[in-house]
Amino acid sequence: MIDQKEFEAANARASSQLGKTPTAVAAHFDERLGTVVIELSTGLSIMFKPRDAQGLENARPEELATIEISPSGLGLYFPALDADLYLPGLLAGFMGSREWMASHLGKAGGSVSTPAKAQASRANGRLGGRPKKPRVADVT
After folding, report:
1. Distance (Å, whole) CA 11 – CA 53
2. By CB distance 3.0 to 4.6 Å, which of 2, 35, 76, 111 could disulfide with 47?
3. How many of the other CB atoms lie within 10 Å of CB of 91?
């Protein structure tokens, strides 16, 4: 159990940090643009496509209509989806957990076609395609 001094010190640290961090003062879904718009305490606004955020990727517009802001201004809650987003993570470019982000970035990166990839693929095809993986001999 913590004592009153520790509790007050923790609150002072949190208040100090909160003063240095942008917080959400308003949020809404712009159906015309298909984006979630967050107005920050700094006067700036950020927006993103719901498909790019974990928990919102399959949301319908009516599910994005209500967005609640946490008392600290650091969290966004979408009650129709029971989904939470953490504002500092969004500002840092993290739209979900590490695993979720990696899976989405991997899908996007693997599907990108560039002239260099196309040329390498053609050259590889002329050589008989992708080489077979060497078999590892069973060690007994």
Report:
1. 30
2. 35
3. 15
* Cα–Cα nearest to 47, from 66, 59, 70, 31: 31
Q: What is the dihedral of CA 5, 6, 7, 11, to 10 degrees?
A: 100
The HSE-up count of residue 112 (CA atoms within 13 Å, CB side) is 8
| The dihedral sign for the CA sequence 108, 100, 59, 86 | negative
Q: Please report, for the chain, the start and end positions of each structural domain, with discontinuous segments joined by +.
A: 21-96
- Quote the DSSP letter at residue 41: T
Which residue type occupies 106? G
The pTM of this model reads 0.60
β partners of residue 37: 28, 47
In angstroms, the CA 53 to CA 87 distance is 12
Per CATH, the homologous superfamily of domain 21-96 is: Uncharacterised protein PF10387, DUF2442 (3.30.2020.40)
Q: Could you read off the pLDDT of 54-109 as tens digits, one per residue? A: 889 899 999 999 999 999 899 999 999 999 998 888 887 766 556 656 665 555 55
DSSP 8-class letter at 132: P
- Residues with Cβ within 8 Å of 15's Cβ and at least 6 positions away in sequence, in order, are none
Task: State the average pLDDT for the chain.
Answer: 82
